[in-house]
Design goal:
Elements: H1 3-6, H2 15-24, H3 28-32, E1 38-42, H4 50-61, H5 79-88, E2 90-96, E3 99-109, E4 112-120, H6 129-144, E5 148-154, H7 158-166, E6 170-175, E7 185-191
Bound molecules: coenzyme A.
Coenzyme A binds near residues 60, 120, 162 and 166.
């Protein structure tokens, strides 16, 4: 069964409801394993399309320009940084009919599985793809024996604080970038089992 058979391939606004529906019927693997229109998969060790991942992240993070201080590390993202983060853990890619829709890096940091550069194509935001990626990270964390997920988001980006809270994260700390006397980021954590 394809997702478009269930909900229609052009019905992006319904993706979030679809995720919930799949959860309810315990059928979320159908979604993640790529048999439908949207798939979330781990990038393999042969993955080499780093330019597309960088474009996705820089496009999604562009709205932060002029809003956060210091500027986002996404602006200077290199292939070396991305391959290092992926090799510490995993790079998960969300694809819509094969086209890159979202991504997230997830790697161990202390006792948590850390979520970095969670990004969804701007035109596809708020349709459930970010939640789907976090759900996939949760599954990975559970498999690897982590009890919680962690992320950091900039203090200025209150919409991210809200979105992260909606995905089950709660604020656990404030931190400052080197050279800053005020908090520049907040740390949020979510239990793996919800
Ligand atoms: C943040 C981001 C990854 C979320 O992914 P998404 O696919 O847009 O989010 P979802 O559609 O899965 O929404 C998840 C929840 O957050 C809420 N949410 C998402 N964006 C929101 C926003 N801008 N303001 C308020 N709430 C928001 C949704 O309403 C939803 O809540 P609900 O399940 O109670 O309805 C995505 O918007 C993005 O790429 N933003 C730009 C890059 C970025 O800021 N990354 C995060 C760095 S920490």
């Amino acid at each position: 069964m394809l997702l478009r058979d269930v909900y229609g391939s052009h019905c992006r606004g319904s993706l979030r409801q679809l995720v919930r529906w799949l959860d309810e019927v315990g059928n979320v693997k159908l979604f993640r394993n790529g048999t439908g229109a949207m798939a979330v998969n781990r990038a393999s060790s042969e993955f080499c399309d780093w330019d597309s991942v960088r474009r996705l992240i820089q496009g999604a993070f562009a709205y932060m320009d002029g809003r956060i201080d210091p500027p986002s590390s996404a602006l200077t993202l290199t292939q070396e940084v991305m391959t290092a983060d992926a090799s510490k853990g995993a790079l998960l890619l969300a694809k819509d009919e094969g086209a890159l829709a979202g991504c997230v890096f997830a790697y161990p940091k202390g006792d948590a599985l850390y979520i970095a550069k969670l990004a969804v194509q701007p035109a596809m935001q708020r349709s459930g793809i970010g939640s789907l990626l976090v759900k996939a990270v949760r599954a990975d964390a559970r498999r690897r024996g982590f009890s919680c997920l962690e992320l950091q988001t900039r203090i200025e980006l209150t919409e991210n604080h809200i979105a992260s809270a909606r995905m089950g994260f709660v604020k656990t700390a404030e931190t400052a970038h080197p050279g800053y006397q005020r908090p520049t980021s907040i740390t949020m954590r979510a239990p793996v089992d919800v």
